[in-house]
Amino acid sequence: MTENTAKSPESCESMIDVRAGVDATDRELVALLEKRFGYMRAAARIKPTRDAVRDEERKASVINAAVADAEHRGIPGEVVGDIWERLVEGSIAYEMVEWDRIRD
What is the pLDDT of residues 35-50, one digit of tens each? Predict the structure, then answer.
């Protein structure tokens, strides 16, 4: 099964179906992360100073929005908050490396 043929969670009838759906979803998530990290490269190119890379107010806003969206969708906000904390910190680290690379 591919992401195009994976069954919806409600349609799964076996663990094979579930695992195929999870695997397809994971591939989609990685593709979305690739896009997100592309935006980090763009930010590194656009921001005028290295100090501008870390923005604690923006970080908190992004994490809070993800938690609120998760809770609205009925999934655990605390788990999503933990994931987003790591995602945002990893994104900041990546952006710093890119900022340095572009200007070397």
Answer: 999 999 999 999 999 9
Using alpha carbons, select from 44, 42, 5 the residue that is nearest to residue 21: 5
Enumerate residues 6+ apart whose C-beta is below 8 A from 70. Answer: 76, 77, 79, 80, 81
- Separation between Cα atoms, residue 75 and residue 83, nearest integer Å: 13
pTM of the complete model: 0.89
Tokens at residue 18, please? 């579930």
Domains of the chain: 9-103 (1.20.59.10)
Three-state DSSP class for residue 5: coil
∠ CA 53-57-59, rounded to 5°: 65
